[in-house]
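Tutorial handout. Part one gives the primary structure; part two gives the three-dimensional structure as tokens.
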Amino acid sequence: MAQVSSIFSQILGLVPRRLFDAAVARHGGMRHARGFSCWDQFVAMLFCQLGQAHSLREIREGLQACEGKLVHLGMTQAPSHSTLAYANEHRSWEIYQDLFLTLVEHLRQQLPGAGGNPLKLPGKLLSLDSSVIDLCVKVFPWAKFRATKGAVKLHLPLEHDDLLVSVRFRFQLPASPAPMRTPSSMSLSRDIPRHMTVFPGGGSLALAK
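Part two.
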């Protein structure tokens, strides 16, 4: 008998539950859970990102449309918007930061030839990615992007060895208002070994010793 798995379910399958549960346990995420687990919250917020939902009500209605299939996502029912709002307000964001850092290293180990130098360069090659993240300008007035829209630009280094976000090299550049252009140079931590950094938007190629 043929088995069908949704794309969303396959994406969730990339997140090992043991790594997720360990991150939740480290930060006490299930304290006062009230029947709404951290995994349920994770599935709902990931659905929000992939489905480009703009409100908690859209998340609930979208998940409700999948009821009967939610069991394949590890959920029993779609949360109410008030339950999701409470979890987003009171649960530690450090759970998902911890999960992100752990997951990057886990996926890096799964890649063939991890840690190699396929381009045969004299040092490590890093690229600076600048992604715009939409924000509500009423909640974050300092992040004004357009007249009625807020956003920030997040700068992340990417390693060309495995094309994953680098969590081992720290760039001393915080998130900036979205209209700000990506700088052509930046301060780098002194503990970064010899490497080359490519900046977007016509930026220069910097070689650090």
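Part three, for discussion. The helical segments are 7-12, 17-26, 38-51, 56-64, 81-90, 94-110. The CA atoms of residues 41 and 84 lie 7 Å apart.
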